[in-house]
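Format is sequence with structure; example below:
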Amino acid sequence: MVELGEWLKDLGLAIIPYSFAFYLPTRWLEYIWRQGYSRFVKAIWYFALGMVYVTGGIEANYVVMYICFIEAIDLCFQQLEVQRKRQNNN
């Protein structure tokens, strides 16, 4: 079980920078097309963070930093979506 956890943690840490790089354009397209897939990406990030905590990895700060940026980006787009709804209701 520990070996599986270590493998998952290493995999998560390896793909986090790439997923972060693709999150912003993906989130922008999601906003334009009015589709919703970013929650799945965020779920993977939180799963990676959980695995780091479970396996006792010291990279937790590394993962948390990326999650903070993802949340900030997501909150900006959520605000844009709220403004779009307000404009459509008026």
About this structure: The CA atoms of residues 23 and 77 lie 12 Å apart. The mean pLDDT is 77. The first helix runs from residue 2 to 33. Helices lie at 2-33, 38-55, 60-89.
